[in-house]
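User: I'm writing a short report section on ligand binding and want a predicted complex to refer to. Could you take this sequence and s-citryldethia Coenzyme A and write out the structure as tokens? A short remark afterwards would be nice.
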Amino acid sequence: MDEHTLTITDNKTGQQIELPVRKATQGPDAVDIGHFFREMGYLTYDPGFLSTASCHSKLTYLDGKQGMLMYRGYPIEQLAEHSNFIEVAHLMMYGELPQQQQLDNFSDIIVHHSMLNEALKSFFRGFYHDAHPMAIMVGVVGSLSAFYHDSTDISNPRHREIAAHRLIAKMPSIAAASYKHSIGEPQVYPDNSLSYVGNLLHMMFSVPCEQFQADPVAEKALDLIFILHIDHEQNASTSTVRLAGSSGANPFACIASGIAALWGPAHGGANEAVLSMLEKIGDVKNIPGYLARAKDRDDPFRLMGFGHRVYKNYDPRARIIRKMCHEVLSKLGNDSDPLFELALRLEEIALNDEYFIERKLYPNVDFYSGLIYKALGIPTNMFTVMFSIARTVGWVAQWMEMISEKNQRIGRPRQLYIGPTKRDYVPIGNR
Ligand code: SDX
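Assistant: Sure. The structure tokens for the complex follow:
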């Protein structure tokens, strides 16, 4: 079959270009415009990248219309039901679900990288107690390259793998230490007999003076939420990690850049913003007023946890978490969290409102996740930290995929310049 191409004609000059269409295994194909500027002299313009594929990837597939999400071809619903975080982390890094021996080895490697260099302890003390934990995460994760010179040669696949293991393993320890610092309690060392999530809960909630046993319901719920947050194709923070990595920056610096990008309320910071929004709304009778503000172009207020660049249907992760909310809240003994009832009513009213229907605005992953974190006793300012722990698996998998591309190049977008044309300097006395 002839190559599939798109012909573009410049109706000013009559010049034409045939652009090859690259085939996807699932979802939209892509028009390759790599030679467009060189042959036609025009840049393509797509701020916000609404129509732009920045790369090809085998990791994660989203279908915005159907509200579908797959990791390495496995539907998120099946992984949520049958798998666990460490097994999905293996799947994302190595491309296949592990056999038992592989899973045991991988789990053992991650466990044995969970301790932090003792010198890092003083870093946390350098922050005020009221420092936002995400500020601490950005700083401490970015500093890891100062400790691990033996795994920053990104041209060495073994170094890349060790750095990935270290990042996945140490994020819970750094997160827990950030939390402990904010509440004035001593840092707790990891316990290698616990699961990945069990260890996080142990390091966050145990104290030296008494035994701590994580509630199995809490452990299972957090493991499931982490699976849902692992990766999401080329979202803002993942694109940031890829762009940082394309310059050859070390993996620790790249993940720190991802954490910084995730923090924004339009992205991973939304889960914290949803809880603040629900607390501000306070009562069902106030919902109409807030919806009116969300619809008012002149009002910066947005309905946090609603809308998505890709999903124009219910976010499959939100569907799973929403279902979990009932189970977790009732099992943990706070059946009727008024904020959960309020969230359900807010969702119901918004989904029947013309503004939201017309714009295909549905609840996203952040709308319900904070309610579960809250039920697990995790403070609001730690919600995006939780997101960053899970997303580190996706970030390192995307970074490894990009770095191992044989013709990998630095990412360097162009611009449509609309500033002043050339003009001469005017001495201050003549201005
Ligand atoms: C995450 O990219 C990912 O995959 C991200 C993520 C991941 O796993 O990595 O899924 C995680 O970041 C989820 C999103 C969390 N953010 C929020 O919940 C914040 C609230 N949502 C919005 O800020 C917004 O919906 C975005 C940022 C999520 C998406 O923004 P887009 O795609 O740029 O959409 P847009 O701003 O162009 O909105 C289109 C229209 C606009 O109205 P009109 O100009 O057409 O009149 O919809 C309106 C917007 O004003 N709109 C909203 C709205 N979201 C969009 N109006 C009110 N409330 C909202 N939440």
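A remark for your report: The beta strands are 5-9, 16-22, 30-31, 60-63, 68-71, 74-75. The chain has a mean pLDDT of 96.
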